[in-house]
Amino acid sequence: MNTSELGWFKSSYSSAQGDDCVEVAVTEQAVHVRDSKDVVRRPFAVGREGWAHFVGFAAS
């Protein structure tokens, strides 16, 4: 999959000043994560269940 074709959006966990920005793109198979300032590097992906667990853990 070409990740440049994904619908990336800034995570709500990112800094409001724009210096710590994480972007995510959700597909049926996975959630892709990248640094918004370094879009050349390959993003990593986690399963949707893993992402739900991570977000739940980060929120607590």
User: Tally of extended strands?
Assistant: 4
Characterize the largest beta sheet: strand count, sense, and whether it forms a barrel: 4 strands, antiparallel
Average pLDDT, rounded to a whole number, is 80
Report, as a whole number of angstroms, the end-to-end distance.
33 Å
Order of helices and strands: EEEEH
CA radius of gyration: 12 Å
Number of spatially distinct domains:
1
- Portion of residues in helices? 10-25%
Strands side by side in the biggest sheet: 1-2-3-4
Query: Spans of 5+ residues with little confidence (pLDDT < 50)?
Result: none
Q: Helix count, per DSSP?
A: 1
Which structural class do you get from the secondary structure elements? alpha+beta
| Spatial shape | flat
User: How large a portion of the residues is in β-strands, by DSSP E?
Assistant: 25-35%
